[in-house]
Amino acid sequence: MKEYFKGIEKIRYEGKDSKNALAFKYYNPDEIVNGKPMRENLKFALSWWHTMGGDGTDMFGVGTQDKKWGETDPMAVAKAKVDAAFEIMDKLSIDYFCFHDRDIAPEADNLGLTNERIDTITDYMKENMGSKKLLWGTANCFANPRYMHGAGTSPSADVFAFAAAQIKKAIEATVKLGGNGYVFWGGREGYETLLNTDMKLEQDNMARLMRMAVDYARSIGFKGDFYIEPKPKEPTKHQYDFDTATVLGFLRKYDLLKDFRINIEANHATLAQHTFQHELRVARDNGVFGSIDANQGDPLLGWDTDQFPTNIYDAVFCMYEVIKAGGFTNGGLNFDAKARRGSFTHEDIFNCYIAGMDTFALGYKAALRLIEDGRIENFVSQRYSSFDSGIGADIISGKADFISLEKYALEKGDVLDSLTSGEQEKLEAIVNNILFSM
């Protein structure tokens, strides 16, 4: 098999004092932490679309990165992507990958030929993936002009039918490659103006499409999770999967909670004016935490920049939620991130992944120490201790009602003396102390 990254050896763990750019400083894949190897705690995944296909093109300029992999024929490029991707994964000790259907095989002039191309490439992937695993698959039902008004939410029944056929094939590819997850991201499932939109019908139809997907996938042996990936906007002005809370309402309304979990992306959380941790907490508290698209945005820019994550604080609080949720099951940490436009060399791909993997490894260890330290959790427990006994216990148990609460308040008088300080700055200092003492 051709070597695409000559001169780059397998990336080794050298510890935090290493000055070698092509070495891990914090991520040791086989180190046992919290009872598991770090590679199992973090379950890193390569994103096919950004890493193997994203060439730095933006709305102001053409690509700066060569992602043809030395080929010109579209199918030859697709096979070269497989070889190059698996080489990257080998050298970075990445066990998982994720893809859209159109990432792995180019779309042809008709659906039948496109499906044949998917079969050809997935056969090739299966032959060569060895111990590598598919984290999840999905369908690109947003890029082609046919989806200008949406896919499952299109006003055209013909487009809905085409989307269903495309998703069917993507599910088959996911099952074929052993994937334990399938993602719905509603890139154009929303509206630009309500003047031309039947919002109820669109959401009803989206639910119908998801239910059909679940029924078909289960019928061919898929036992994994379905995910919805929230995003508030871009490319559509208002997307129906705005944030985790909105998606929860959708899943409950259409009785889809049994099969669906949430795939949370950091940059999508901030576009919704939430923190990454907030979205993870909402998912965890409601029992729908599933998987993560790991990246970060630029707070000075108002769009989805998909940068490789290097913010240690975000990683700490992300991993805090993951650990408290019991860790990953079918999900993992997919690097839905791309090298900056000016980072155009093949070595930059490795620099990006090393930075992101080290960030989450450090974040995981710091979050674990935060939990083991106990000061934060003990403070929270004490802050709400008034609900452990007396009138608080009556409220929690359902024994209290408005009449008994009024009686208590009249007898108690002013309740200002029952309040205690939130001590936010003290708690933030504790986080700093734990993080920087590592």
Produce the secondary structure layout.
Layout: E1 12-13, E2 23-24, E3 32-33, E4 36-37, H1 38-42, E5 44-47, H2 48-53, H3 74-92, E6 96-100, H4 101-104, H5 111-128, E7 133-138, H6 157-176, E8 181-184, E9 190-191, H7 199-219, E10 225-228, E11 238-239, H8 244-253, E12 260-265, H9 266-271, H10 276-285, E13 289-293, H11 312-324, E14 333-335, H12 346-373, H13 375-383, H14 390-397, H15 402-412, H16 424-436
Parallel strand pairs: 1-2, 5-6, 5-14, 6-7, 7-8, 8-10, 10-12, 12-13, 13-14
Antiparallel strand pairs: 3-4, 9-11
Helix pairs in contact: 3-5, 5-6, 6-7, 10-11, 11-12
How is the biggest beta sheet arranged?
A: 8 strands, parallel, barrel
Roughly how many Å is the radius of gyration?
Answer: 24 Å
The helix tally amounts to 16
Shape: globular
Strand segment tally: 14
Unreliable parts: none
Order of helices and strands: EEEEHEHHEHHEHEEHEEHEHHEHEHHHHH
Coarse structural class: alpha/beta
**Helicity range:** 40-55%
Q: What strand line-up does the widest sheet have?
A: 5-6-7-8-10-12-13-14
- End-to-end distance, in Å? 42 Å
- Percentage of residues in DSSP E strands: 5-15%
Q: Residue-averaged pLDDT, rounded?
A: 97
